[in-house]
Amino acid sequence: MRAGIVLLTRDGVAAIERVRDGMTYHVLPGGQVEDGESAAEAARREAFEELGVLVKIRGLVAVVHFGLRTQQYFLAEQIGGEFGTGDGPELGSSAESERGSYRAVWLPVSELVERELKPKPIAATLTGAPDPEWLLDGWLESPVVFEEV
């Protein structure tokens, strides 16, 4: 299982810019849930490793089914750390490496689809919302489930 965060501030949505095999795209921060760890704990750990920020998990907002994999996304609030100072093992790789490069960036909500933020259903829904913060608060009450092709 993969766990990630949706961190929305006045700067936009926190994302990881990936350059791999000559392609540039963006993903919501997150990663694999490790043994003995809850999905929320994994999301919090990954936010620190990838972004360099400490976050408070407000709650589950989305579940994405991608083939046989399940991904859970949590609404997060930054409570410490410095954005862009993550030191996870993947952050040292170059675009030419097998893993590709990773870089923490802020994406304006209006650009999530054109910048190819994945998972695409979350990006499309946030982009189309008149008030993404209000939408996410609603998702806290009833997390949404997406199928991604």
Automatic annotation (TrEMBL):
<dbReference type="GO" id="GO:0016787">
    <property type="term" value="F:hydrolase activity"/>
</dbReference>
<dbReference type="InterPro" id="IPR015797">
    <property type="entry name" value="NUDIX_hydrolase-like_dom_sf"/>
</dbReference>
<dbReference type="Pfam" id="PF00293">
    <property type="entry name" value="NUDIX"/>
</dbReference>
<protein>
    <submittedName>
        <fullName>NUDIX domain-containing protein</fullName>
    </submittedName>
</protein>
<feature type="domain" description="Nudix hydrolase">
    <location>
        <begin position="1"/>
        <end position="130"/>
    </location>
</feature>
<keyword id="KW-0378">Hydrolase</keyword>
<dbReference type="InterPro" id="IPR000086">
    <property type="entry name" value="NUDIX_hydrolase_dom"/>
</dbReference>
<dbReference type="InterPro" id="IPR020084">
    <property type="entry name" value="NUDIX_hydrolase_CS"/>
</dbReference>
